[in-house]
Amino acid sequence: MLRRTAVTARAPAVPIGRTLPTLLFPRRLLATATMASDTPMEDAIRAKVTEAFSPSRLEIFNDSHKHAHHKPMQGSTSRETHFRVVITSESFRSTMQPARHRLVYGLLRDEMAAEGGIHALQLRTLTPEEEERQKAKENS
Q: Which of 7, 41, 70, 86 measures 20 to 30 Å from 95, CA to CA?
């Protein structure tokens, strides 16, 4: 059991037997911060979409396991080839659906061209108002 200690302005309090890094970063997060990611393609998608569109909602689903048996995937060592991505962003306002998709495809051009990269990308691009209308329709 950890003892509670008072936090001072000079130095952080560390319970006996624990180090500061393990308190600030739980084991899993610490390992993630210091090791290579298990999902580099998903991480790249998340980073690029977040930087370009500042989405209010970003969901990334890796569906690669559903397609691993397909003939074009035979011999592929990548476990990140098929994605479904839902993006809600103000950036899509006054832009038609095909143009939104072209923006995302252009953003992820390198990931799609890479050997073992993205093979299939299913997109849902919404404005916040479209998302609200969709939620209202689902709830009625």
A: 41
